Amino acid sequence: MNRYDIGFLGMGAANGLLLLELERKNLLHTLKILILEPDAKLKNDKTYCFWADSEHKIRTELRDVLSHQWDTIATADGLESLEDQHYYMVESTALYNKVKSVAQSYENIVWIRGAVDGLKTRTDAVELSSGDYTWEVEQVFDSRPPRIKEPMGPLVLQSFVGWRVELQEDYWTPNEMTLMDFNIPQNGFTQFMYVLPTGTKEALVEMTRFGSEPLPHELASNHLRNYLLSPGLSFDIVHEERGTIPMTQYAEVKDQDARIISTGARAGKIKATTGYAFKSMFEHAKELASGIAQERKESSWLRLPKSEMDRFNFYDHLLLHILKHKPHWGKEIFEALFATQKASKVFQFLDEKSSVKWELSMFARLPVLKFLWALAASFIAFVVAKPSRWAPLLFTFFASIAVVLLPTYITYGLQAILVFLLFLYGIPHGALDGYSHANKDRLPKFILRYCFIMLLVVLFWAASPVIGLVAFLVYSAWHFGETDLREWGFPSIGLSFLWGTMLLAMILLPHLGEVNTVLEVMGITRVDWPAEFVNMAIRMTLTLGLFMGLWFRSIPWIVAMVTLSLTATLPLATAFGIYFVLQHSLSGWNHLKLSHKWTNLEMWMKALPFTIGAVVLFLLVFRFDKNSMLAWSSYFLVFLSAISLPHIYFMSKLYKDRF
Fold first, then answer.
1. pLDDT of 158-178, one tens digit each?
2. CATH topology (fold) of 3-146+251-297
3. How many CB atoms are closer than 10 A to CB 602?
4. pTM: predicted TM-score of the whole model, two decimal places
5. Which of 46, 154, 468, 590 is within CB 3.0–4.6 Å of 461 for a Cys-Cys bond?
């Protein structure tokens, strides 16, 4: 089997820019490279645009692929200079030809015309396959289009139809462009025209729509035709471009294995609210090329993901919510933006290099009430779409108050609620493994295999309760950590296990007396640690957890730590139930729902036979000790560990394949 240092999945703009950067750093001759690209890259399938000052590296290093530039923008108030900025165009064929020329000049670069249809991670390499061929690669740069799972409402699309036209007479000024002309029918969405002249008689005229429905070709053609005919122009269409760009903050794919690195749209490099990506892909290519030696040595186990949470993401979130639910508001917002701010300052803002002071001044001149509506509406949508982020804290807060006021009666009531929710979606989310990983014909065999694994777990407990308990804690820590970090956007093998261990410590250590009572019933030696040591361990875990939440700038992480610290005042069963039912199971339920596009009702109906079976098994086990709550607790632990192990395997596979 042939082995390569680097494998490129796709050779579009993102990976093409990375290949060019590796050549600029004189690294290509030291690397054995495999390129898998299904397209011949012979057509001008895209037009990339970006803005930069004349000294920017993108301007100087890609000079030979720049087809045109503009330094003046036409606005409703007249012409406006871009000052030290220029707006540039790159035709995709120019970039593709440059990349292919570089690749063909190196004998150690192999270019395969084909798409990857298999990707497996092994200890020593990543295995790629296409058809009957298989290769081993040490590091992969993956630019395949991401599968987007929009968690709140419909996906906003930027769809466009552009014509390259030639006129019969001089009309345009080659250095003057029209960026967003809203003087066209809106059709209930946000619609506008671009005009990018490349000569006095030639231009790219493009209609763009922001909205949840794509721009129909016939409608776009009519608007383009009317736009050009209204000033009395006679024109010929030389070339047409069409496309759709998802406007989302959920495009980035983070692989648990550090050897698989996303690029382009898959790395979230498309600006969610504008669709611009070329300059961010260029800068990402520089980052990757600069650290490629370190990246190749970095362990996937120790990989620490980065948080992208900042104020600019928050701004994008508000505007996307407006475009998603009130797309007809877009015209007023954008017109107000360009009417009150210089284009050069807007470009600086879109580059996320503006100051907070300028941003506050900008928002004060926009329709403020519309953004306040977006803030309130998006918060409500978040509460509905992400209950696992807030429900545990809310339940814990009220439970803590109730336990103080009615300590005798409220505990059983809280646990009854959690048991009800456990059978409502806690156990069902695990029962859906059969539908998630097996087709109809294989389902009976899948169930038998699932039950066999459960039986092995029970036998382990019977043979050695200590081994059974330790194994359960280890794979539970891994699974809880993996689910939470997938939910929060931080997939990492080592980090998952660390977080899972920390949350179990935050649940078990404050309740060590109850834990020891259960252990004694199960015939396991008590954990007799000094109170000073236990308290120190709790404080260290809490401090480390809060520090990590702040380090990764993750609000859900911090909320989870606050919730876990508050559960210390509640009984063990209630504390564990709050985490397991309201955070872990809800997250897993929603991950399955998003992955398979199921409705809640479909999921409940699919899981019903398995849920009934679990309830029956649960009751059969407990009938022997129905008068002993402690025995029930110990049996429930064994029961939970038995159904957990196969579920953990299949959920981990789901995360690897679909997230």
1. 999 999 999 999 999 999 999
2. FAD/NAD(P)-binding domain (3.50.50)
3. 14
4. 0.79
5. 468
